[in-house]
Amino acid sequence: MSDDAATVSVIIPTYNRARSIAEAIDSVLAQTVPAHEIIVVDDGSTDETPAILAAYGDRIIVIRQENCGVSAARNAGIARATGEWIGFLDSDDLWLPERLEVFQRDWRAADQDFIAHQANMRFIGKDYVWNMFEIIDFKFPINHALHVEKPFILALKSASPVITIVRRTEMTHAPFFDVDVNFGEDRLAFSRLALSGPWRITSQVVTESRRLPNDSDALSNRGDAGATHRATMETILYERLARLPLTPEELRLINALWATAIFRLASSQRAQHPAAARRTLVRAARRHPSPLKGWTKAALCLALGERGYDIATGGGDRWHRG
Question: What per-residue string of b and e applies to 300-311 under the rule 16 or more CB within 10 Å gives b?
Answer without folding.
Answer: bbeeeeeebbee
